[in-house]
């Protein structure tokens, strides 16, 4: 399927599903809530559908999916979650980070919820424990938010002569305070100065770009955050225009021209969510399904971007990379 057709299918069909579901009441309906947008989630949606298919369910045949997209605006999530609950979906899927998972949990105590989130779901109050979540909620946690110090170290290795680093953080993202704390701890240990620029909207993102370029930071760390994922191309373009070596959380960034990405495999996490949804549709209780944790990590280096920036990537990093784009 072409990318344009895929986006049209998953971004514009929400209104049709409730009518079809009412006409075929025996077919379960999955409510799919995302903090992201269909344009930037083509690969992960394919992974989710693959997991669903591995469990015996095919969209449009024996299950229907109703989509709601916040497109990076977390304030829309509670209303979108409530709308899906009012449509009496069979299972509610909450993807794109903590804000989506919290909105889904607050919207229903009865409908099974399967989330995909970036930080500890026990600390976030989503579940009682990782092994026995309890209640109506379970899911997959990628723990990407806890990896900012590791990313900082990789960025320092690829840009050893740079002492002034910038970090882009979304203050509306629930784990942002811990992200900033981790980065501020890492900077002096690595002998680096750090400027944190904050953005949660398009206007704030442009202001953050101005702050970072005006301060003449020499390298950029983009903290994990679904809003930034929806603005991926703009952030990569900013780094390129300012000739900044930059590191990001997901493989998608490096594939689109970012220098380095490091984090859990997001496609594998979404596939696991699809598998859990299938198991619940077959009768298993979400509270009995343990929280899935990452087992696969992607460390990707874009050598083409490195050459454009005039950077010689150390052989140790190249050997450690899971994928090198040339």
**pLDDT under 50 segments (min length 5)?**
12-24
Form type:
elongated
Distance between the termini: 26 Å
Number of strands: 12
Series of H and E elements: HHEHEHEHEEHEHEHEHHEHEHEHHE
Tell me the CATH superfamily of the largest domain. Answer: Response regulator
CATH level 1 class label of the largest domain = Alpha Beta
Q: Structural class per helix/strand content?
A: alpha/beta
Largest sheet: 7 strands, mixed
From the 3D structure, determine the CATH topology of the largest domain: Rossmann fold
The CATH architecture of the largest domain would be 3-Layer(aba) Sandwich
Spatial strand sequence of the major β-sheet: 7-6-8-9-10-11-12
Chain oligomer state:
single chain
The fraction of residues in strands falls at 15-25%
Q: Helicity range of the residues? A: 40-55%
Number of helices: 14
* Rg (C-alpha, Å): 20 Å
How many domains?
2
Mean pLDDT: 90
Describe this structure in words.
With 326 residues, the protein is an alpha/beta fold. The chain has 2 domains: 3-143 and 265-296, Rossmann fold; 145-264 and 298-325, 3-Layer(aba) Sandwich (Rossmann fold), CATH 3.40.50. Helices cover 43% and strands 18% of the residues. The protein is built from 14 helices and 12 strands. It has helices at 3-12, 16-23, 42-54, 77-86, 98-107, 148-158, 176-189, 202-215, 226-230, 232-241, 251-255, 266-281, 303-309, 315-320, and strands spanning 29-34, 64-69, 91-95, 113-117, 137-141, 164-169, 193-198, 219-222, 246-248, 260-264, 297-302, 323-325. The strands form 2 sheets. Strands 7-6-8-9-10-11-12 form a 7-stranded mixed sheet, sandwiched between helices. Helix 5 (98-107) links the parallel strand 3 (91-95) and strand 4 (113-117). Helix 3 (42-54) packs parallel to helix 12, helix 4 packs across helix 5 (98-107) and helix 6 (148-158) packs parallel to helix 7. The chain is elongated. The two termini are 26 Å apart. The model is unreliable at 12-24 (pLDDT under 50).
